[in-house]
Amino acid sequence: MIDLYTASTPNGRKVSIVLEELGIPYTVHPIDLGKLEQKEDWYLKINPNGRIPAIIDKDNGDFSVFESGAILIYLAEKTGKLLPKDPKERSIALQWLMFQMGGVGPMQGQAGVFLKYAPEKIPFAIARYQNETKRLYSVLDRRLGESEYLAGKELSIADVSAWPWVNVHDYVEISLDEFPNLKRWEEQLGRRPAFQKGKDIPNKVDHKKDEAEMVKKGQAILGK
């Protein structure tokens, strides 16, 4: 049994999706980011960085893991699924996982910050991060023109890591129409039951309807 500490963000959705794909039983513990629950002492014992997501593996001596990429690797290795065993194929999967962790997530995240949360609009910053996100999307698009999934012929944690970010492309006002391979992949994965269920944990979010509340929470987090 896994205890999952999460919120409705792309990084949080990675873990609920992978748990669904792997069929691992888990208990959801929603973290209210707007109330800064992630900064409370009890949670910092689980994740010293004060961010979501984090897990506790109840079947492994209450072992805790933080950082979404590290969690995906841990769960893939725990089950022997979604991460190839062949060294070269494993490396390819991890390369694309790190591409998301070090590129797509940070750049798209900053695009969202300056577009939605900043107290004043800074056109240079908005354009900088939107354009870099588009560049990274173009890299994904080229890769997905070569193979069905990021790591090759099979779904892997690389796909699970990237999809929740690409899935919210509209939140940073980027269209997938100019990235046909990426669009095909995003729609294809979005039809998988595990992705459909996992993306709505701990709760379903409508980015247009719920934008005001999301902005409020984002500004509260950035203020700390």
UniProtKB/TrEMBL annotation:
Domain GST C-terminal, chain residue ranges per copy: 86-212
Keywords noted in UniProt: Transferase
Domain of life per record: Bacteria
UniProt xrefs under SUPFAM superfamilies: GST C-terminal domain-like (SSF47616), Thioredoxin-like (SSF52833)
InterPro entries the UniProt entry points to: Glutathione-S-Trfase_C-like, Glutathione-S-Trfase_C_sf, Glutathione_S-Trfase, Glutathione_S-Trfase_N, GST_C, Thioredoxin-like_sf
Signal peptide: none
Protein name: Glutathione S-transferase
Organism of this sequence: Leptospira ellisii
